[in-house]
Amino acid sequence: MELFKHLQKRESESNPIRIGIVGCGQMGSGMIHVTHQTPGMRIMAMADIDPKRPSSTLKKLQIPESQIRTTNKLGEAEDALRGGKYIVTEDALLLARMEGLDAVVEATGSTETGAQVAWNCILHGTNVVMLNVETDVTVGVFLRHMAGKTGCIYTVASGDEPGVCKSLYDFACSLGFEVVCVGKGKNNPINLHANPDTAREEALGKHMNPKMLAAFQDGTKTMVEMAAVSNATGMLPDVPGMHGDRVDLEQLAKVYVPEQDGGVLKNRGCVEYSTGKVAPGVFVICTSVDPRIREDMKFVGMGEGPYYLLYRPYHLCNIEVPISVAEAVIYGETTLAPKRMNAEVIAIAKKDLKAGETIADIGGFEVYHSVYRYEEARALNAVPMGLATGAKVVKDIAKDQLLTMDNVALDTGRLAYRLRQLQDELTPTEHGSGE
Question: What is the maximum span of the chain, computed from C-alpha positions, in angstroms?
Fold first, then answer.
């Protein structure tokens, strides 16, 4: 409620939080609509490779053309912003350089674009909110580290599963519970070899990009999301790729518990997902050794124990992002940000790959991805997901085999590659411990 009061005050004083957004696809355009009805904030600058998309969104909101300025020039954009006009641009980095913006939301889903935008925002001291978890699991540790040096906020957004999982995890930890497992529901079983062709019919029916749907179907998105949770909390994948069992809601606290108590977990403190009837929710399995707490948990209807399910039955994607923006700008708080690399998402061949082929972005025909413990991935010399894009195959790779630093040559010209090099040079002390 206190946050709402701050936003109401800004609205009454005609001093809204001014936001830029990069990427005006399904998530980005939806957020423009949300902030249009949210008191105390407005998305005033929009960048997209197709400027017709943000222009169309503004038109649907009945913003007159006289209030929209399309430009790639910094001076023109800042003049327009001071005049209360909306800015549309093809230049994502223009938003990072605009002094009049309080925060920039990155919503492209591209690791390289996300790295470019976040890095430039941090260099200019602008708060950055990531709807791009792909970038976060690749170079988020370094980006957060540098944001702290420049005095701005780097955070993953609420609404997507990682931010919502972190909120539930924080709630349980704040009450002194031991969190045994934190996870999400996945609304379809994984098809490791899904590609844009196999996903096309369903994607078109859902008004989605086939490549994006394939990235959900092949498990990449789930691996990325839970790696982000791992890197922010210290919870780890129990096995490579996690268990991912088909477990319905009422069975979660019986299955995602240690083996000695009848569950599947070899370790305590794990990230997981379920393809049972859990989505679109997220969950925490927690416990307490205190007999009185167990007695009280039974009294309030949480079951016999000793493991208890905390469950949030929804995540609202882009609709919740304004909360993260407001908390970053007003309180200087993060929703979720990594302190160290606990988990790594690595690339695996979807098909036989021949020397000379180039690896496309996630959801393509060449690779799917799995989450490993960070040290395991390093020992395997595996290629991180965010660095696989643009890599050249230098030795034939069989279907379902790992991409390694020996069988591919990375694109060293990408900013994500250079930032990852800097991140890898950070000592564990500088990384810090999980929250």
Answer: 67
